[in-house]
Amino acid sequence: MQLPRDLSGLNRLLLAGALAWAAQAATAEQRTIAREHLRDKIAGYWIGQLVGNYLGFPFENVYQDEPCPVLVDRYYDARDAGQVKLNDQDLRGYTHIFAAAFEGAWSDDDTDIEFVTLHAVEQYGLDLTYPQITELWKRHINRKIWVANRTARDLMNRGLVPPATGAKANNPNWFQIDPQLVNEIWSAFYPGMTQRAVDRAEWGARITNDDWGTHPTRAYAAMYSAAFFESDVHKLVALAQRYVPATSPFAEGMRDVVAWRQQHADWRDTRRLIHQKYWHYRKDGYEAPVSIVSSLINGLCGIMAVLYGEGDFVRTAGIAVSAGYDCDNQAATCAGLIGVLRGASAIPDRLTKELPHRTKWREPFNNRYVNFSRDGLPVCTPISEIVDRILAIAEGAIVAHGGERTTLEGKPAFLVQCDFTH
Q1: What is the pTM of this model?
Q2: What's the average model confidence in pLDDT over 149-174?
Q3: By CB atoms within 10 Å of each CB, which of 41, 127, 250, 373 scores lowest?
Q4: What is the CATH topology of the domain spanning 29-418?
Q5: Are strands 369-370 and 105-106 parallel, antiparallel or unpaired?
């Protein structure tokens, strides 16, 4: 639909937004979800990220030109250094020791920036602003941050506020992986409400990134939000493509990965093709910046893992790790996605309760999240409390955006105004 030419710029923008909202409302569909299932999926998101993070730790940035020779389906550590190449000089090679020492899960950038976002939303609401999130970043995020996150945080000290902190002109790391792994929480806040999840995830992405560096974040946000109701990973990837500009390098990569999945039964063949084309992406005179932590190469390996994993938690996470590059981050995102799709109850106990070698926990990660990286926030929080707090925000968002509380088979449930179609 073409807008009238005599409208002012602001009015045209407002009218365009209203038309987009109307189109979205016209395709909305109410879906029912039991409250206990909603909670299980949110738990699957948080616990799945933890599992993927720790599975990938030993292999982070180890494999580049070729993938890991084994499919990682268990926790590896320094004792396996003779079998595969891995990190064995720091925490990443000794996760079983740290799990025992912390008596549970511990913070890393796959979850601890979202831990800050959770506190920010509780303080300011889902419509928190860039100045508000800047205030909380400066208060809580000062250590153990890298690449685009580190640059954005330094720019905040110089007085810049997002989106200037992620803009190309200011942040040379605008294309890196950072926002893909720190914004999944928006989809947990907006289950089934994909457009709102995508919009707020991009809002978060622009704290650190710009241009196509935000596009993988949009794709994963759509998949996460829809996965509360859609269990077919191929449909999720197809849905994600709608939320990425068609001319984006990431959109082109998604189209390629979908086609290669149909042509090749072995994910390693597709991984080889991804590396050949997208490690050094050039098109129409444009050459994309290259990095082992680029959002482009890592994001596409995640799409590959989702498609070849076929909804299986271990296989999806394993492919994401074995693909290489910045694999702990991508594995956390992919494992969290399948955690939403299948629920926390579908994650194998051996990956959530048997990480320490001398003991077994009764609950996933001993129901304990130890924050040692984000200043001024609680050091030890039960995972069940984190899940319940996210659930409370999601419940409010559902009701505020056209949904309602109901019952299903005599138990509390929600009617959600979903805005995606099959």
Answers
A1: 0.93
A2: 98
A3: 127
A4: ADP-ribosylglycohydrolase fold (1.10.4080)
A5: parallel
